[in-house]
Structures are given as C-alpha cells and as structure tokens.
Write a structure and sequence with these properties.
Layout lengths: L9 H20 L6 H10 L3 H20 L6 H13 L8 H8 L4 H14 L11 H8 L4 H14 L2 H14 L5 H17 L4 H11 L5 H17 L1 H15 L15 H14 L7 E2 L2 E2 L1 H15 L3 H17 L5 H16 L4 H15 L4 H14 L4 H5 L2 H6 L6 H14 L5 H14 L2 H18 L3 H15 L5 H13 L4 H13 L6 H19 L3 E2 L7 E2 L3 H13 L5 H14 L7 H9 L7 H12 L8 H4 L9 E5 L2 E5 L10 H22 L5 E4 L17 H10 L63 E7 L2 E9 L5 E10 L5 E10 L4 E4 L12 E9 L8 E9 L2 E9 L9
Helix pairs in contact: 2-3, 3-4, 4-6, 5-6, 6-8, 7-8, 7-9, 8-10, 9-10, 10-12, 11-12, 12-13, 12-15, 14-15, 14-16, 15-16, 15-17, 16-17, 16-18, 17-18, 17-19, 18-19, 19-22, 23-24, 23-25, 24-25, 25-26, 25-27, 26-28, 27-28, 28-30, 29-30, 30-31, 30-32
Protein name: AP-1 complex subunit gamma
Keywords: Cytoplasmic vesicle, Golgi apparatus, Membrane, Protein transport, Transport
Subcellular location: Cytoplasmic vesicle membrane; Endomembrane system; Golgi apparatus
Amino acid sequence: MNSSDHGFNPAFNMAAIKQVFNEAVERVRMPTPMRLRDLIRQIRAARTATEEREVINKECAYIRSTFREEDSAWRCRNVAKLLYIHMLGYPAHFGQLECLKLIASPRFTDKRIGYLGAMLLLDERQDVHLLITNCLKNDLNSSTQFVVGLALCTLGAIASPEMSRDLAAEVERLMKSPNAYIRKKAALCAYRIVLKVPELMEIFLPATRSLLSEKNHGVLITGVTLITEMCEHSPDTLQHFKKNFSVVLGKGKKSSFKDCSQEEIVPNLVRILKNLILAGYSPEHDVSGVSDPFLQVKILRLLRILGRNDAEASEAMNDILAQVATNTETSKNVGNTILYETVLSIMDIKSESGLRVLAVNILGRFLLNNDKNIRYVALNTLLKTVHLDTSAVQRHRTTILECLKDPDVSIRRRALELSFALINSNNVRTMMKELLLFLERSDPEFKAQCSSSIVLAAERYAPNKRWHLDTLLRVLIAAGNYVRDDVVSCTIQLVSDSVDQQGYVSAQLWRALEQDTSDRQPLTQVATWCIGEYGDALLYSDVSVGDDPSDIVRVSEDELLDVYQRLLWSPQNTIVTKQYTLLSLTKLSTRFRSNVERIRQMVQQFGSHLHIELQQRGVEFTQLFNSHAHLRPALLERMPPMEVVRRDNGSQQQQVQHSTVNGVLDIADVNSEEPAVNSDSNALLVLLGGSEPSIVDTETEQQTAKPPAGVPATTDNQDLLDLLGLDIGGSAPVAVNNMNMNNNVHSTNNNNPLLLDPLGSLGSLSTSTPLPPLSGLSSITPSLDSPSLVAYEKNGLRIMFTLERSDAPSTICIAMAAYNETATLMSDFLFQVAVPKTFQLQMMSPSGTTIPPAGSVTQQLRIQNPSKGALRMRMRISYSSGGATIQDQAEMNNFPSEGWQ
C-alpha cells in the first residue's frame, strides 16, 4: 500500500517530532513549575494577608523569570496561574504579551488560555490589544468550530470600534454558517458589536431574519436578543421590521400566519411562542415544567417593542398574550417570570381592555404571593400602570392597603406610593382612614413623605372643610416633628379661609396644646397662631368639638397663660415655635378682658433674651404696651381670610402661597449644602453669560445667591440680597431655608430645639401670617388676547407660556403649563428658570411633580423688569420617564416687548 493513501506527510511528521523533542529537552532542563491547583491550595492555606502576599509575590517572580527565558513548554500553565492571581486583585499586566503568544499557538489548549487571558487582561484602552486583530481574523476562518467560537467570544468581549469595523464582515459571514454552534456565537458577537458601534447595524440586518427560522433554541434566542437590541436603539430598524409586517397584513383580508413567509417578524414570533406554549415535555428545554422560559421572555420583550404604538401589530399579539397569561403555570418562579413579562407587554402595547384587566388581575395575584420579591415587582408594575387603567387597579385596593403592614421597607414604600395614586373623590374617606393609621404607626423615615402626600390628597379631594381640617390636625398630631414646614402654612391658610370652623379648630388645637407637645413643634405653631387669632371665641363662648355634652371646651384666661408660660420657657421648644407663641401672646392682649398686665410682664422678659430675634420681638412688643399702647388694638386685630388663587386644570389644582420656614439653619448646615447649590447655579450662570443672575427653582420658591466658599460677597451679590428683601451686612453668606411639599428631603429643624442662627434673623415674623401672599397676585387680569408661547417641546413634553398682565408697574405674570403627550408617566418633574440680574423673578409652588399621560402640571411665574429691557430666559427641565432620568436645557428669547408697557 502506498504511503500517500494514508495522507502521510514526512515534512509535517518531522516538524512534529522535532517540536516534541524540543519540549522534552526543555522539561528536562527546566524544573517543573507548580501546578495551578497547588498554587490555589497554598494561597488558601495562608493565615494572614501578609503570608498570602508572600506566596503570590514569590510565584509572580518565578513566572516573570520563565517569561524572560522564553519557556514555551510551561507558558500555558504559568499564564493560567497568572490569571488566577489577577482575579485575586494583584497586578498581572506583565502577562499580556504572553497571552498573544498563546493565541498564536496552533494547539487548542494554548489558544483557550490565551484568549481567556486576553479577555481578562486586555481592553480597548491597552495598545497591545490591537495586535490581536490579525490572530482573530485567522481564527475566525479556522476549520475548527471551537477555535472560531473562542475568537468570537474574545472579539465580543474586548472589541474596540476600530476592531469592530475591521471584523464586522467576518462576523456577518459566520452568522450564515451551516454550523449552529458558530451561528449562535456569531449572533452574540454581533450583539456586542452593535452596542459598541451602532452604525454597523445595517451590515447584520439581512442576516437577522434567517435567525428567526432556526430550529435550534440557542441560535433562536441569540437572534431575538440581537433584533431586540437593534429595535431599541434604532427607530429606523424598528420601522423596517414593522413596515414589512404591515405589507403582509395588507395582502388580503383572509391572510393567516401560515400564509406568511419567513420574512415577517411578528407572525414568526407569535408562531414560535405558540409552539413553546403548546409543546409537550422536552427534556432539553424544560425548566420546572415550562418549555424554555428564557426564550419565551425574550420573545415577549421583543413583541412589546414591536407592538408599542402600533394597532395592527398589537391586534396580532392579543390572542397569543391571552394564551400565555392563562396557560402558564404559576406555582414556580419560572412561570411568574413569564407572566410578569406578559403583563408588561399587555400594558405597553395597544391591547384590548379585557386583556388589560387580565393583566392587572395577574398582578393582584402576585400581591398574595409569599415571595417578597414578587410582591415588590407587582407593586412596582401597578404603580407604573395605574394611570392606564385605574378602575382595574381599584379592585385590588384592599390587598394594596394590606401591603402597608408588610415588614419589608421597600414593599411598604411602594404600597404607600400606589395607595396615594388610587385616591379619588369616591374613596377618599376610606383611604385617608387607612393612611392616617399607617402614619401613626410608621417609622420616622415614612412620616415626612406620607404627611405631605396626605395634605396634598386632602386638599384635592376633601368632601368638606370640616373633614379637611380634621385630617390636617390628625396629620400634625401623628407626624410630629417630621411634618414638613409647608404643612403649617397650608393649615393656617385653610383655618383662615374657613370662617365658620375657626372656633371648632381652636378648641381642637387647645386640647392638643394642653398636653406635652415638645415632639410636635408644627402642631404647637399652628395652635398658637389660631389661638392668637381666634382666642376670644375660645375664651368667651362654649365651643363643641363633638355630639356629646362633655365635648364642650371651656378655657379660662389663667389656664391659657399658664400653658403659654410653659411653652415660652421650655428649653425643648425651637426658636421658631417661641416666635409664634410670643406673637400669639401679644395678640391675646387685645382679646383678653383682664390679665393684660401679666401678658405685658411675660413679653417684657424677652427684651433681654439671648436670641436676637426673640429679643427684638420682646422690645418691640413691649412698646405696644407702653408708649404706643393706643396703636395695639389696631395693629393686632384679627387677620382677614388669606387670599388664594386656584386654577382648575383637569384633575390638577394649583394653590399659590408661600411656605413658612420652621426654624433657622445652623451655619454648619449652610456650608455643607453649599456645593450642591453652587453646582446647580453655576450651570445656569455660564449659559446666561452673567456673573450673578437670580436663580429660582420650584423647590425653593425663593431667589438664592451664594458667593463661592471663602470669597467675600460682591456688589452683585448685594443686589440679589436686596431683591430678597434681606438687610445683611458684611460678607457672610446668606442661606434661605429650602422647603417644598413635594420635596423628598424633609426639614429637621423642628426636631432640634438647640439650633441657633449665628447670622441673626432671616426675617421677621411680626405679622400675623407666616409669610404674606405676594403682592399683585390677586390683581392678575388675564385678557382674551393673552399671547401663548411654546417654550419647550421635546420627547413628548410640551411647555406653554401664557402671558398675563398685572396691575403692578413693569410686571408681567407667566402661567406655565407642562403637558405630557406620551403614554408614559413622568415623575419627579422639576422646572427651573434663570433670568439676568436686571430682572426680579418669583416662582410659585407647582401643582405637582408627577405628570400622568395626557395630563399636565401648572405653575405661576412673576417677573419684574424695572429697566424694561429684553427678557432672556434659560430653562432647565428634568423628569423621570420609563425608568430613565431625562435632563435638558432650553433658552427663550422671543418674549413680546409690549408686555412691560
């Protein structure tokens, strides 16, 4: 027999023999290195970190020496040990070139370690990784599928944009390979290349469609993953797939999925999903009784993307989504995962109403599950979908309220947010009863957010004023010092506006004030304000707080003064609370029929108080009892009802008012918050090109001007201080306490009675109201020809400005309305404005921070322009939508000049 019949190659055999001989010689000449398992055993046996470092340093020194001596026989073993050392966190960069040598080796074992080392030690920041491109190209053309797979894995892991462009054509060719193993690896590599270089998407587009006709589940799931990535990041690609589907649907009315070719993606996905549901037991793909749940989840996610805002595609998916929702086993987490993806798909596409109800019912069943993760996911999903089908979610209101008692903090937080989203005019009494019970028993971290949300919901849906007042009083009692400062202003304004309920409220507050209220400073402030205004009704008339005759409240002047004496000299009460109490006591001198002299003595004692604000009040109020006694009755007469402007905008209401600042800031607190404020301010300063414009945002409702740390205030800063109405001398920075009902960070001033303001007073509380309404707001006169301007329109958010004339000279009022034109909820909406320093800007509280789909949020802006110059406005908009935080900026320069006339 001829030697050529056996494929004998003498040259090849001689080379192989020579290589084996040389390796044997090197093994004899060089000592055998330590095996990887022995190194791992030594490292684990080390008792201290020092011993571990000694072992690793010794082994690294040996590995370096073998690399220098070009020990090719044991290079693979040494690199493997080096990779383990690298995974422990020790430096291993000196092995990068050795990995390239292993990759160039013809042996598969060497290539495997070399490619693993390349994925661990190399990335696109290393210049060395460019040397691997030629080796990758050679291995991508190898006849061995496992070598090709190694090259594809490495390319997907460390590819740079340049390397991706060079090898994209090779990957696209391998996606059409007859070998399923290679097709799967190539599709995964294409997915990573598309992430790195999106413009290469067009190269892989023709090959993706054939992947959906695969029988192999591995290839199929990688193909679906690749198409999902393309559709999510390229609207053109998404329209490409949808366009082909629409053409098929238009061929004939009786078209069925069986008539569709392999080019139509939606019918193909529906067919694959249906086969998975109806398929019998398959050991290869079965997971806890479910056929390939990973592929089902991937297909459902892709269907959700294809059916979004597409009625035809959604209609084709309705039947299969209903089948998945009804035929999936829910006893295992695998089935719950598929149901969760099904619910997301139903809620995201244009599905039928009955299908949406089915999806919400599935989430309701999730709430009854013992697994905390499933309950949390259900609450989170219901919170996102409550605005799409509120009536369906309302059926599970009882279960949601039960989640408020869950021991898990995350579940309670999501249940609380969802509970407030479910409140309407029909269930407000029942929901408020449960939420107030939760507020009384909740941890301190929930009290601030819960109390403010209750106040907002009560203002929006209150059936009558008596119920509204009772709710606010229960909030003040239950939340204690965790009540945000603006709740005090809201309560005072409501009492002032409810003339027929003032005696009833004063009696209720007196009962609470008789007890120890050191842990309820906001309650004390509201109580003293109301008693100071309406104390005569409390003293000289029988006020009933219930139906029982024993509920009649009778108070004597001495009892009232004894309580005030305790409040004024209690070291646990804050300075702000004492300011409220001292002003209330002075007002009571005009309500009392006797004991005026005792009031004068109590007020006079504060003329030498250590705190400058209380001392100033004591001195000034004492003059009202001495030389200016004739002015006291007129100055301290009862305040008229506070004027409030409400705008009805669908389901939203806007209330324009100031918030009261409860307490003063410590100078340490001011300095600690300064960098965050400066970062926001400087961004708008640079955009406007001014040195110190006045910056106003919706969270502060006031203008804030701060010099850099350690730099004295300039004349520009002093101009801004003048706009704030503050008379502060020197170069000390000025801090204004920021507070908003919708802010997630609550004030802690009420909790600390020892905080003093070293800078002096931040404003006087010598008037009867915490902060008076802005002058001119009540005189706004909208005209029929008020111009409306589009200030911003992007990503489905449209902001409109409506200009309204004001009676004040050189003043214009702007009604801002932000409209959500998408189908997704916009939360944490924040609208900020900056104007040049020649203007004076004031912003009212917004009607809310959440914009539901097809909903809106409104806000009032008031701008004074003494110089009547051209108005330039820089806006910053931020909100969260669909799990992503969006921030943008815009400029407005086209305001009409006649508005200042």
